[in-house]
Design goal:
The protein is α/β, with parallel strands linked by helices. The chain contains twelve helices and nine strands. The protein has a seven-stranded parallel β-sheet, with helices on both faces. Strands 7-9 form a two-stranded parallel sheet. Helix 1 packs across helix 7, helix 4 packs parallel to helix 5 and helix 8 packs across helix 12.
């Protein structure tokens, strides 16, 4: 049995859908924090069980009888994320999983300027040490992140943000398709994958250019000092911890941590990955 965690989330739900195109529903189980949100999967014959990374005891039931587990990284900020991911890995190992997959990130590094990248790196270190064959999916930065910055651009005609750098923004659909391929083909070599990215990069100056083209209104990229942006974000109601978290992404991007592109994603899914330009145009068009 293949068990997939986070199966009602943005990435996990897409992975389940892709896996169900490849294997029968009874061969798939999902681990979700709220089984009520997975009733449609249950109706299709998927095994639905409650599993909570912050309560590892629940994972023994969720992972029972599994051959493979796909652990979608915990959506938790701070040190708790590492503990949650490690708890899930240990539960999968205890359940007898012969293979564990983990959704890591292309920028995973213990010296990253963006804390989630450190979380991914530490999780990968633990995964490599448990002695079970594993694959760490080095996913590109989700292109959906750009949505958080588009409303301001449309409303004010300005994109006021700290200095950044090119990012290989990558779509959830393509990453889900790649995960499904890796789950259903255990001939893939163990260890971290090559970066699973879209074929091009984009910085926020280019985002402003695309926004201008799509909306028909000039959008100007305005670079502000880190501390100035931080003060302004907090003054507008963003919790300081969240503002500092977001600032880390910009600092890491301008150091080039997310600039790499690689053809591996397209080779896995057998087609062109959605470019960030296309993804951005789609997001902007939806806001018209």
């Amino acid at each position: 049995m293949i068990v997939i965690t986070g199966a009602t989330g943005q990435l996990g739900s897409r992975i389940v859908a892709e896996v169900l195109r490849r294997v029968p529903a009874p061969a798939v189980g999902v681990s979700v924090t709220d089984p009520a949100k997975a009733t449609a999967l249950k109706a299709r014959g998927v095994r639905v069980r409650r599993g909570d990374f912050t309560n590892p005891a629940t994972l023994a039931d969720a992972f029972e009888g599994t051959d493979q587990v796909l652990i979608v990284s915990a959506a938790i900020r701070g040190a708790g994320a590492i503990d949650a991911n490690i708890g899930a890995i240990d539960a999968a190992t205890a359940a007898g999983a012969r293979r564990i997959l983990y959704t890591s990130h292309q920028g995973a590094s213990t010296d990253s300027l963006f804390p989630p990248m450190i979380t991914h790196a530490r999780t990968e270190e633990h995964l490599a040490a448990v002695g079970v064959p594993y694959v760490a999916l080095r996913n590109g930065f989700y292109s959906s992140t750009l949505r958080y910055y588009l409303d301001e651009a449309r409303a004010t005609g300005r994109l006021v943000l700290p200095a950044d750098g090119p990012v290989s923004w990558t779509g959830h659909d393509d990453l889900a398709a790649a995960a499904a391929v890796l789950l259903t083909d255990d001939s893939v070599a163990a260890g971290p994958t090559a970066p699973l990215t879209a074929p091009s990069t984009l910085d926020f100056a280019a985002v402003a250019t695309v926004a201008s083209e799509v909306t028909g209104r000039e959008v100007t990229r305005v670079v502000v000092d880190d501390e100035e942006w931080l003060r302004e974000a907090v003054s507008r109601g963003m919790p300081r911890a969240a503002a500092e978290f977001n600032l880390g992404m910009f600092r890491a991007a301008r150091r080039g941590e997310f600039e790499v592109t690689d053809p591996t994603l397209e080779k896995l899914i057998g087609c062109r990955a959605e470019s960030v330009h296309a993804s951005l145009r789609s997001m902007l068009a939806a806001r018209r």
